[in-house]
Prior knowledge:
Elements: H1 45-63, H2 81-89, E1 107-115, E2 121-124, E3 131-134, E4 142-151, E5 156-166, H3 194-212, E6 224-227, E7 238-239, E8 242-243, H4 252-256, E9 270-272, E10 279-281, H5 290-305, E11 314-315, E12 318-326, E13 340-343, E14 347-354, E15 360-365, E16 368-373, H6 385-395, E17 409-413, H7 419-423, E18 430-435, H8 438-450, E19 458-462, E20 479-483, H9 492-501, E21 505-510, H10 513-525, E22 534-542, E23 552-559, H11 563-570
Helix pairs in contact: 3-10
Pfam families: TRAM (PF01938), tRNA_U5-meth_tr (PF05958)
GO molecular function: exonuclease activity; tRNA (uracil(54)-C5)-methyltransferase activity, S-adenosyl methionine-dependent
Protein name: tRNA (uracil(54)-C(5))-methyltransferase
Amino acid sequence: MEIATQEAPKGGGQAQDIRKRPAQGGRGPKRQRARKEKPVREGDAVLLADVRALFAKQKLRDTIPHDPSEHSEIPIASSEESHTKEESNRQTPATNGTPGLPEPFTETEVEVLEISSTGDGLAKHPSSNQIYVVPFGTPGDILRVKVIRHFENEHYSTADFVSVVKAGPLRDDSRINCQYFSRCSGCQFQMLDYSEQLKHKKVIVEKAFKNFSNLPPELIPLIGDTIGSPLQYGYRTKLTPHFDGPPGYLSKKDKMNGARKYFDKVPDIGFMQKGLKKTLDIEDCPIGTDAVRMGMKRERLRVAEEMKKYRNGATILLRESTDRVQNDDEAASQTLPNTIKVTSASHTEFKSCVTDNNGTSTEYIDDFVFTSIAGSFFQNNNSILPPFTQYIRDNIMPPSSSTGPPIKYLIDAYSGSGLFTITLSSLFTTSVGIDISAASITSARENAKLNKLPPSQCTFIAADAPELFESITYPQDETVVVIDPPRKGCDESFLSQLLTFGPRRVVYVSCNVHTQARDVGVLVSGMESGGSRYEIESLRGFDFFPQTGHVEGVCVLRRVEDAGSATTAAE
């Protein structure tokens, strides 16, 4: 088949394909990039699992015969007639039998059905079974939202919170303790009673193991109630507000010629605005401790005074540090600048805010003392650490009715600056903490000295966790392993080595119950390479971050002595 073309014009111009319509102005048409639909949080299997479950539930409900006199659609509070008419005109055409959806960036009203494991509300519009993911909602709320984007293949849409039309039974906005709530991306649950927050976080753990452990229900025990934080506000010992760089654009050539951007005013300093790539200016954060909040005010003033020194944006470290003295010490009566003084029956604490990433911060957990590099990781809610570490002490050993030799050895994988190695050391003949960070190991060894623990009782090794069992000679029947990995969980190599070593007990602590569920599923089901298998003895959450959707998981596992029976059960 021949393709007709025009003769090449004189002067060396290119022949024009007459199949294409020439663009006005003589320029050819721009090539349009194919836009691939993907979830707004690509890879967020947690949200999608909740959306799919709710969508399936709604579809099932709609197929069940019902009394025609009953309302079959979710009751939505009526708005002004003119707005309703306008909204109706903006519905997109139905596709594949799916009712039309509101156009992006228009407003509509939805009813929240439940809260997802990510902390967002899952809502429904009466026009379809499409699920709307909207923040700051509680079950039963009628919310006005701005629709952002539809993902019809996954049956959900994202939307921004606009206002509450009608509060549901669980919502009480008088509980809100921050003027930036519903704009700041930090807190999600300030309108909920704390007991309801704890109930929801128990559900998060339940759904995590249901959706991501790949275990049959009979191998997952009843989830324990979530242990709450003694403080629901004023608990965060670390905050990291930030500000963006100066506005404007500099080309590469401008930069090579020494051109620089400057701030013409004090930038917004705070945290990300929910749903936007924008920093929200926040002068105070009520979930921070008093020392951290004091430091935040001081650092905001410092940045304003030193604004001309900055050429780029920056993140500000605010980390609480505590000095403790006994009440009979003369120092207990003094008053120090830029500190918060807290007096108890036996001692006085002076709490300050460290802003140097390479500085040293000090924390006390009961009578244990820990120092660490201020910019490094340490748990950010000191108030819950005493009951948290006590719970692990109470559950790390086998029940008194169990048989077998006594457990004498502790391996603390991902040990950091030694939290578990040190607080659990009195239970064991020898405890060893292992971490990939040499700086963390240096802090851990110093902490062992501060707590008067000799190397024969408490030691630390700098090594990558997947290689930690290569040098371990402890008898497996007398050993327990504590795991506290980063959010991504454990890799396959580590889990394989753990199953090959086969300690008698494992305590898995995690800030991400979904990757925890995945890894625990491997420990229970076993691996093709062989090794031990485990069963879950207990499982529950700890609320390290009240007012947010985060929950810490603690799973205690015991080794199955008969691997064959474990295989049968898993199948």
